[in-house]
Each structure stands twice: as C-alpha cells, then as structure tokens.
Amino acid sequence: MAYGLFGRDFMEIEGSERTQKGRGREPHAHPDLTRNAGDDMIRDSEATISQLKGMVKRFNDERDWDQFHNAKDLAMAISAEAAEVLEHFIYKSNDEADEILRGRKREDVEDELADVLWTVLMFAERYDVDISAALRNKMNKSAKKYPIEKARGSNRKYNEL
Q1: What is this structure's pTM?
Q2: CB neighbour list of residue 3: distance below 8 Å, 6 or more residues apart
Q3: Residues 107-160: pLDDT tens digits?
C-alpha cells in the first residue's frame, strides 16, 4: 500500500480530485502524493504547493477543523507557530544556534517550521491565495525597493540605502 507525504504514521492519501464544499469554488485536482511502498517520503524537489495545500485540506476536512480556521485565527496561529521556532534560538549565540541545527534538537526545529508552513498553507488554501504568485509579486516589489547596485552586501532598510 502507498502512503502520503509524511509516511504511514501520518495519513494515507487517496485519489487526486478534490472538492471544496461550501466555498463556491470549482473542484480542482491535487496530484496524488502517494509513493510506492518502501519508497522514501516525497521531497521538496518533487512536491508542489498545490499538492501540499491539498494534503493539509484533506487532513483538516477529515477532522472537521475548517470551522475553526478563519482569517484572524489563522493569522494569529502563523505568528504563534513562528514564535515556537524562535524559542529554540532565543538567547543563544550564533554558534549555539548552528549547533542546534546540527544536533539532536534539529527535528524539533523542523517540526516547528512544518507547523508554520502548515498554517500558511491552511490560510492560502482557505482564502484562495496563490502562494507562488504572491511570492513572485512580493519579490518584484522588493527588487524595486532594494536594487542590487544599492543593496548588495547591505543590511540597511530600503529607505536608508
């Protein structure tokens, strides 16, 4: 039997057609994230944002959790989850922080980063945010604020360049 993105312990993913009930949107396909039995889980180089959104949506749908996911609470959850990443590094030197990522606490940090991404994906899926387009648009705006000839090697804010 094939299992989903996070392996057997997380959830089995079946099919690729997804219906988003109650939101007035047409169903859209989320490619199947299953792998052949014995394969490693899917990696960043193979997964699409659409697939990840679909996986998170299914997980939440199976638990009827969408009722708790409104824009305000999801935005607050993104901040709270990001703070949990920070907890691992607060009051640590740069060398200590690097050691955390090389040591046995790395998995804890990865779990917290996954929580941040999970929550961002929930927000984006629920409110039809095209993450790729949003990132591209933001990078274009940042490129104008931080032209290479002025910003290269500088940590100054755009209005101080």
Answers
A1: 0.73
A2: 10, 11, 12, 13, 34, 35, 37
A3: 999 999 999 999 999 999 999 999 999 999 999 999 999 999 999 999 999 888
